[in-house]
Specification:
CATH class of the largest domain in chain B: Alpha Beta
Order of helices and strands of chain A: HHHHHHHHHEHH
Oligomer: heterodimer
CATH architecture of the largest domain in chain A: Orthogonal Bundle
CATH superfamily of the largest domain in chain A: MetI-like
Number of domains of chain A: 2
CATH class of the largest domain in chain A: Mainly Alpha
Number of helices of chain A: 11
CATH superfamily of the largest domain in chain B: Periplasmic binding protein-like II
CATH topology of the largest domain in chain A: MetI-like fold
Largest interface: A-B, 45 and 52 residues
Helix content of chain B: 40-55%
Order of helices and strands of chain B: HEHEHEHEEHHEHEHEHEEEHEHHHH
Strand content of chain B: 15-25%
Number of helices of chain B: 14
Shape of chain B: elongated
Radius of gyration of chain B: 23 Å
Radius of gyration of chain A: 25 Å
Strand content of chain A: under 5%
CATH architecture of the largest domain in chain B: 3-Layer(aba) Sandwich
Number of strands of chain B: 12
Largest sheet of chain B: 9 strands, mixed
CATH topology of the largest domain in chain B: D-Maltodextrin-Binding Protein, domain 2
Structural class of chain A: mainly alpha
Structural class of chain B: alpha/beta
Shape of chain A: globular
Chain lengths: 307, 334
């Protein structure tokens, strides 16, 4: 009798262990499917594009001669647009997240806002492009400029930043806040001295995801009127005379990396396709550098937290 | 405290972001703006590159791609100086320009020969008449004409796989106009792509395929494709520089244009740019894979520019198979 029970138990355990193994194998293959495809795509692009990457490639403007064409206007444009996006989306998104999580009363209004913000994260980017065309380009008369593009991408990634800020803030134990209040801190002091610094790591993760999405966007940027051929750079932000800083570059016309890439891909000549692969490789590296910076800051903050 | 300092920086950055997001006046630089068709883009890009080189940076030129229709929209709002167009301006766009008080000079700059191609393994196709093409592409053929032998009985009983540009392209407009007789009238069950390289790929890997796109894409991929000679009534003709210029490759050779705003022409940099365009279009269009107009056409166009012959010679109607000299001699309408 007992032997039989033990045997049923053993077979049950064996069955469950079998499922464990099956799931591990399925999981492994799912992961490999994604990773191998991605690696193959990047490797293919690297093989096509890597030989084309040289100093000249970064310092030349686009040209009809594939071998003389470069990405100067594109990478400068992408960098500046990303700067505007980061400087707008991060403060706005973090502030909105803090307000919703720490200050806003919990009622149906905030619920409605919460649902909408989450939904906005899934709206196709072209919709933001159309909104921005009407609002920034025409209504606010910013024109087809770097600032218009940066703001467009900023509202595009705002939901991601807000949602991740809220998640990060929510993860902070309530006891920390109570401790601060007990010592007589105001709400703002609690947020500024404790909540925000402790949640920086989580917020930055959201910022990375948002910025990585923004850097590859083409549709909204084309909608607001980015150029395809531009052989000059925006005004330098640093001037030799007072006040040494100029914001004229914000109103400059521009192009970005994905547009330059797409233009080269759709050319009939094979040599341009090589340029496109090289530009794609550079774009990946730009994204990695951006993410590396965020990860560095995140690490820096995490190190300082001692609970 | 470290954190509060960071917060102050944060706030300062936010303030900075908000304060420079106010409209900044564009400063008056010598700038020529062109926008429009992706088909005309390579030529305008090449001209812009050379023009800026000769001007040594004194004049800046920008070129955008928003399609012929999108380009005209911006043009008629006065946002750009030059509209790149792979087809003549349409009645609706003429109206928009008229209402905005935008007058313009229409200048043909090169030819694009729409090229019909099949797979190199296709042994049966020797030539195509316009009637054959119509049978394949007209809207009534949808889901009906699906085999090669339905077009011509001597062709094999093999599936007919069609490839063509997307319905938003000027190439599609022109092809349907020339073949079916009505712009945009086409069957819908073909493989469409905005990227002509995808079409090249499709036709070169499918024995039963037939597709069409601009000549430059055929010229670059001549080894992977077989060109179909087109019989426009006077025997089969293969697209080439010679047959397009002498007018025998018809009706699939089309002129492509730039439109220049009269107001912009008052600015010396725009005038210089357009003149430079006409002087160099022959050489540069050839370099980027297009077919130049006959030399006389450029002289005529330059005269039109000088005398500011306003309006279009097409009157807002699509038309096919016209010789460029006839076009330039026509009376223009606004």
């Amino acid at each position: 009798m007992q032997d039989k029970e033990i045997q049923t138990l053993r077979s049950m355990i064996a069955r469950r262990k079998r499922w464990d193994v099956i799931f591990a194998v399925v999981g492994l293959f799912s992961m490999l499917g994604g990773v191998v495809t991605l690696a193959a795509l990047i490797a293919g692009m690297a093989m096509d594009g890597a030989p084309r990457i040289s100093w000249d490639f970064f310092t030349s403007f686009p040209s009809r001669h594939a071998d003389q064409a470069g990405i100067l206007s594109a990478w400068v444009g992408t960098t500046l647009v990303m700067l505007v996006t980061a400087f707008t989306a991060v403060p706005l998104g973090v502030a909105a997240g803090i307000y919703l999580e720490e200050y806003a009363p919990k009622n149906w209004m905030t619920d409605l806002i919460e649902i909408n913000v989450t939904n906005l994260a899934g709206v196709p980017s072209i919709v933001y492009g159309l909104l921005a065309l009407g609002l920034f380009v025409y209504k606010l008369d910013l024109g087809q400029s770097i600032v218009a593009a940066g703001l467009t991408l900023a509202i595009l990634i705002l939901p991601v930043v807000i949602v991740s800020t809220r998640e990060a803030i929510r993860a902070i134990p309530g006891t920390i806040r109570e401790g601060a209040f007990a010592l007589g801190a105001t709400k703002w002091q609690t947020v500024a001295h404790h909540v925000l610094p402790y949640s920086t790591a989580g917020i930055l993760t959201g910022v990375i995801i948002g910025m990585s999405r923004a850097i590859g966007e083409t549709a909204p940027i084309i909608t607001i009127g980015a150029l395809t051929y531009i052989a000059f750079l925006p005004e330098s932000p640093i001037k030799s005379e007072f006040p040494f800083i100029s914001f004229e570059w914000l109103s400059s016309a521009f192009t970005v990396m994905p547009i330059q890439m797409f233009n080269w891909v759709s050319r009939p000549q094979e040599e341009f396709h090589v340029n496109a692969a090289a530009a794609g490789l550079v774009l990946i590296f730009m994204t990695l550098i951006m993410n590396a910076m965020a990860i560095f800051i995140r690490y820096h903050f995490r190190k300082r937290i001692k609970w | 405290m470290n954190e509060s300092r960071m917060m102050k920086n944060f706030a300062a950055a936010a303030f900075l972001a908000a304060s420079f997001a106010v409209p900044v006046l564009a400063h008056a630089d010598a700038l020529v703006k062109a926008d429009g068709s992706s088909t005309v883009f390579p030529i305008t890009e090449a001209v812009a590159e050379e023009f800026q080189a000769t001007k040594r940076g004194a004049v800046k030129v920008t070129v955008g791609i928003s399609g012929t229709g999108g380009g005209f929209k911006k043009f008629c709002r006065g946002e750009v100086d030059v509209a790149n167009a792979s087809r003549p301006i349409m009645a609706k766009e003429m109206e928009a320009c008229r209402q905005a008080g935008i007058q313009y000079v229409e200048l043909p700059v090169a030819y694009d020969a729409l090229t019909v191609v099949v797979n190199p393994k296709n042994t049966w196709l020797k030539s195509l008449t316009v009637a054959d093409l119509k049978k394949m592409w007209e809207p009534e053929a949808q889901r009906v004409v699906t085999k090669w032998n339905q077009v011509r009985p001597e062709w094999p009983d093999a599936p007919l796989n069609l490839f063509g540009p997307g319905v938003d392209s000027g190439t599609f407009d022109y092809f349907t106009e020339a073949v079916v007789g009505k712009a945009k009238a086409s069957r819908g069950d073909f493989t469409a792509s905005e990227d002509d390289n995808v079409l090249v790929q499709g036709v070169s890997t499918d024995k039963n395929a037939l597709g069409y796109f601009g000549f430059a894409y055929y010229a670059e991929n001549a080894k992977k494709l077989k060109v179909a000679p087109i019989d426009g009534g006077k025997g089969p003709v293969i697209p080439s520089e010679k047959t397009v210029i002498d007018g025998t490759y018809q009706p699939l050779a089309r002129p492509i244009f730039i439109y220049v705003s009269a107001k912009s022409l008052d600015r010396p940099e725009v005038k210089d740019f357009v003149n430079f365009y006409l002087q160099n279009a022959a050489a540069l269009s050839k370099e980027v894979g297009y077919i130049p107009l006959p030399a006389k056409a450029y002289t005529l166009a330059a005269e039109h520019l000088k005398s500011r012959k306003m309006g279009t010679v097409f009157g807002g109607e699509p038309s096919v198979g016209l010789k460029i000299e006839e076009l330039l001699a026509r009376e223009a309408k606004q």
